[in-house]
Amino acid sequence: MSSSSSTSYYANGYLCHCGARFVVRTAWTIGNFGRRFRGCSKYKVQEHCGYFEWIDPPTCVRGTEIAAKIIEKSSKLEKSVLIAHEMEVVARGMEAKAREKEMMARKKEKMYMHALVVSWCLIVVLLVSFWYIGQVGKMKKNIEPAMITHCVVVVLL
């Protein structure tokens, strides 16, 4: 755990040794758990003057004992959150892959549907063609004897 909180605020116009405003932070160490202190606002950012002053009295023995348990539980919770986040990332990846597979399946389904429609159209065209050829064949059979008789009649005359 870090020795102070990441959130801080400026006090009203008070300055530290280097002339910058000091900030009030909270300690999260076992020995000083929850104690507020004033410190240079440049701490952990750039060179600082080292200004430091406790605001709260020292933590009692019971507070130190409880702090260790709270820090331990907090660490476990942080690990659980990290694991949950990793699981969420994996789940989102799996979801994206599933969506991609679904989209590909829909494209294939659409392609197969088009192929089915085209094949049925071809079958209909072939059936109509065969029917038409059959009708023409029947007409030729009916026309040929009549034409032969007509040609014979014409030749005899």
TrEMBL record:
The keyword Transmembrane applies. InterPro entries: Znf_GRF. This is GRF-type domain-containing protein. PANTHER family: ZINC ION-BINDING PROTEIN. It comes from the Eukaryota. GO terms for molecular function: zinc ion binding. It comes from Fagus sylvatica. The keyword Membrane applies. Residues 16-58 form the GRF-type domain. It holds the Pfam family Zn_ribbon_GRF. Keywords: Membrane, Metal-binding, Transmembrane, Transmembrane helix, Zinc, Zinc-finger. The chain crosses the membrane at residues 111-133.
